[in-house]
Task: structure prediction
Amino acid sequence: MKVVLLQDVKGTGKKGELANVSDGYARNYLLPHKLAKEADAQALNELKNAEQSKQYKIDTETKAAKANAKRLEGQVLIMSAKAGKGGRLFGSVTSKEIASELKKKYSISIDKRKVLLESDIKAFGTYNAEVKLYTGITAKIKIKVIEADENKQ
Result:
């Protein structure tokens, strides 16, 4: 009997998959426990529509990520920080600060865990960073750390 799984079933398949199982297993276990529904024309149509919707969402997110990567590629992000003697920063410039600056400057919302720094930023200078926008889509940016103007703060 063909069934469409409504939840992940160990040894049978994942949610949303079409599975071919024995009649007894379907009637006595999967259907009563609402783990699956019989694969009639309506269920197959719903399954097909769900797959198309999922693919459309992936396509639009990929397109948006590529556009954002093109905008960010090679950009220099200027960050200001306070420092003590010898050019050492008080603390460091973190990926969280970089992500919030990207949101302010480019209106691109990025999780701080998606900003990869080559090394910790603890002194003035220019650093390379990689921003992961989507699976397989990244943009390389430069972070320039300058001294904060005391009069502004």
User: Anything to note?
Assistant: The chain has two domains: 2-64, 68-147.
